[in-house]
Amino acid sequence: MKKFVSIPIIATLIAAVIIIFLVFQWLDPSDEKSIFSEEAAINSVMKLYGGEVLASNIESDQFIIELERDSGIYEVILNTNTNEIVSIKQMELLEKEDQQANNTPTQQETNEENEPTILTKNAVEKIVKGMSNGKIKSIIFKQNNNTPYYLIIVLEKDGVSKFTIDAITGNIIDQFTERDKPSKIITEKQAANIALNYINGEIDDIDLEKDNNKSYYLVELETLDEREVIIQIHALTGEILSVTWDDD
Q: I want to staple 153 with a disulfide (CB 3.0 to 4.6 A). Which of 108, 110, 137, 171 is the partner?
């Protein structure tokens, strides 16, 4: 007599085998395939953040992408099934960006903010033209003991002027004009006119003298109130050097 296994037992064994197979499939992620590719994940990160991808790999159900930007190096994690960003964190922070992130200006920026504005050469030129009709030969920027200034050379009709101007305030620090020296000695008539323009009277005598390589005129003059005076006049420049009264 033949023995038959009952149908319910066979069905139970088949169901058990199927369940065991499904459990092993669920526990073994090696057979799972990501819905999105690694390339798609990288493209998503680049589109959002820009920069340069240094490395990328897959761990479990996550894409891990190492991204370099101007501000530093970041680790971006995306879900392999949804391609959504799970997290992003900065791995390395650049010093400059660190200061900007904290709204703290760099030392250079702080110094630039504290530094006063230096006048331009055009601004200095306008200042000089307001004081001289000469031709500007040169404008030189200098600094002495942390004090900036401009040295300006101006060619005048009768000499050379030098202006020293504060490069911040525009104030005149120093001004000097060196007049050209006449190459010819003035005449006796010119010396007489200089003396009479200085003191009204009548010329008695004019002598040209020379002392220590300096030439000068001695002009003797009698005033309208009959006083006598001797006027010493530089023979080259016409400058009055001295006035001596004779009270005897």
A: 137
Buried b (16+ CB within 10 A) or exposed e, 178-200: eeeeeeebbeeeebbebbeeebe
Q: Which residue has the tokens 């499904």?
A: 22
Backbone angles phi, psi at 151, to 5 degrees: -110, 120
Rounded Cα distance, 142 and 37, in Å = 64
**List of long-range contacts for 179-186, beta carbons under 8 Å, 24+ apart:** 179/237, 181/236, 181/237, 182/236, 182/237, 184/236, 185/215, 185/235, 185/236, 186/217, 186/233, 186/235, 186/236, 186/238
Cα 128 off chain centre by = 24
* Digit-coded pLDDT (tens) for 13-48: 777 767 776 666 555 544 445 577 888 888 888 887
If you write DSSP's letter for every residue of 52-101 in order, what string do you get?
A: EEEEEEEETTEEEEEEEETTEEEEEEEETTT--EEEEEEEEE-HHHHHHH
Cβ atoms within 10 Å of 138's Cβ, excluding its own: 10
pTM above threshold 0.85: no
> In DSSP terms, which residues pair with 53 in a beta bridge?
67
Q: CA 117, CA 140: separation in Å to the nearest integer?
A: 17
